[in-house]
Records
---
Amino acid sequence: MNRWKIVSSILIAFLISFGFYSYGKSKAVGKVIAYPNPFHPGRHTLTIKPAQSATFNGTVSYIVYNYNEEVVYNGASVTNSVITWSGHDNSGVRVSPGLYFIKLKQTYTDSSVGLKFVKVLVQ
């Protein structure tokens, strides 16, 4: 894995999450809370929800990446309040301890898209 690719991906994720970078027709997802962070897949389920009693509008899909930018898990939530991840990959196997990035993609009714990145530590 190219070191520059990792650094640039993290920088873009940071800029997108704070609303400084966007592409195409996009909106901000807004501030989200991920807890418990760090979390242990055998004891907890990671919960991601909008901050301050807000709700997600529309469908929210999420992709979990490991530190090497490999897709670990794909999920979608049609509820408007919370997203959960059990700490398992697409095969149902518990992920290894380490740093993971979750990309939230919210699709609005006017076909615009909101993006947010969340950093999670798995123990």
Note: Residues 38 and 121 are 5 Å apart (CA to CA).
---
Amino acid sequence: MNVNKIVPLSTKRLISSTFGFERPLTPSTRDKSSTLDESNNDSHNDSNNDPNNVSNNEPNNVSNTLEEKLFSHQNQQLQKKITFRIKLWITFSIIIGLWLAVLSSLFIIHLQKTSIKTTQTTETIVGIVTLDCTSDSDCSSAKPYCDTRYSFECSQCTSSSQCTDSTKPVCDIFGTRTCHECLVDRDCSGNLTCDYAETRTCV
């Protein structure tokens, strides 16, 4: 038996409203339902974006905190390295400066001691050796020239130019400092040779 044919439409509506049966959605009902869903979604999104919602933002906050701590730790380590290198360089510079100061002091002391020894030696030599002359004016006519290069003694000559005797034109500078006819064979003419051992004359 077909119930739809027997039960009138008004009766169906009454039964549906009385017993809570769902009735099909009309176009207007669908629009209201979609509007309600969108409102619920917006409120949900707002709750997620709410800065006061600690439970949703907590993972991000923890991540940011860890990054900040890591960055701070790296900066501290870098500062420690830079500070250590600066201290090491300063210490090294001070040590080098001290060593240079010590070496300079030792060198100056050595120079002072050497100068004192040289002065004492010079004074001793001057005290022991009696100088015959220091210039030609200290010498007599027999030995008019003062040998200021070696012996500081008055002599007949200190160079061959001072030998005025034509028979004795050569001065024995490194020996007796007197004038002679020859000192070597080339001082003699012709086939003559110099008798340097005895007479220092050409023979």
Note: Confidence is low (pLDDT under 50) at residues 1-7, 18-33, 44-49, 51-55.
---
Amino acid sequence: MRDGPGVRTTQSRNALSLVLSFLLCSPVLALASLALCAESAPARELYQENCAPCHGSQGRGDGPGVGAFPVKPANHTDPLVMRAHTDEYLFKAITEGGTGVGRSPFMPAWGELLTEQQIATLVAYIRSLSASVQQ
């Protein structure tokens, strides 16, 4: 059997449609795909600038501002803590702050300052912190 010029185009189109459908039907998987860039310098810088003052540079909940809070910030390196929360929960916590997820009012809302893409990148980066501890 010989493939004609239209066969490869149809196969390419079908493959592209399958990938797009998969990503569009699963926002969590689309978010998870950002994990590929979680270890990037921009993701690390975003975390260091916005999260590290409270959560610490390594994500252990031991940032320099921790002494001022009555509640210790979350330890992003603890797999048990991180498994308890979905990506959607983390996204909402970053966007709306602690009160948005029924937690500490000392966790600020970043939704007005960061884009959705930046917040998704932070979620992936935070996930990578606990994943690196598990390995």
Note: The two ends are 48 Å apart (CA to CA).
---
Amino acid sequence: MRLGYNKPLYILPFDHRRSLQTGMFGWKGALSPEQTAQTAAAKQVIYDGLNAAVAAVVPKDRAGILVDEQFGAAILREAARSGYITCAPAEKSGQEEFDFEYGEDFARHIEAFHPTFCKVLVRYNPEGDTRLNQRQATRLRRLSDYLHAHDRQYMFELLVPATPEQLHQEGGDHKRYDQERRPALLVRAIQALQETGVEPDVWKIEGLDRREDCAKVAETFRHDGRGEVGCIVLGRGEDESHVHTWLATAARRLASGTRGELSDAFAMFRAKHAAWLDDFALFMALKEAHQGAAWSTWEPDIARRTPAALDCWSQCLAETVSCQHALQFLFFRQ
């Protein structure tokens, strides 16, 4: 089976277990049958939402779910029958060290549900506990070998939390660690895992702010014959403005014309939708330039859309307008 998955993929994750029990329901210890049923019912509501989204607009061949066997066994089976992409976690929930949820019986549980992807969540800092990293890498290599030997795909969610010493060196500033230290550590973590023989088809990584860091990470997980390996970028709980910044960064790269076939498709999209796209993009750029204020409060000339004002503002906001074009293209492709 060829390594990688390089298609559009939109995953709805609801494989939360320990955090759901304690954070949402406030339950401690072993669950009763009634509590287990209540948790499973909550997850069914999320799955119903996916069905509604696909019925309305989301392309089914790009839509997937990530749900656990403990509370979502029925959902996994139903989703597979319905033709969705399915992902099931292999890790024990709520642990700092990766280990198999079902121990030595992990393979039987994978085969019982035949998920498109087997997913792991791993905390791995290359400057952290060496023995911990080695134990995790050994288990993760074992899973990697098993999945590829049985034509299953491997989804790897990699977190690189700061060690106490690293955080101390950054003055206790988590944001500074994220921006200045984490990108290089992420690259080293991917390299170390690859050298151990861990070969995911899709990586899941927390978002990075700088374009050069994104490019370096992409180069790392796709080097040496791994050109089809995919990547899902996680929002990390950031607010709307931060997520918009990430989207705008991607859009600027697309608008630059350096993305090959994707840039060609973007040019065709702009030509096809020129009747509304140009005006819409300029309006959104103007709204951004005016800090979201209503158009009736803008300068009189541009509020009245005089030709001279439109020409002037179009030139001044050319980059932002192009970014808006690209954002609309990306939204239309979902």
Note: The radius of gyration is 23 Å.
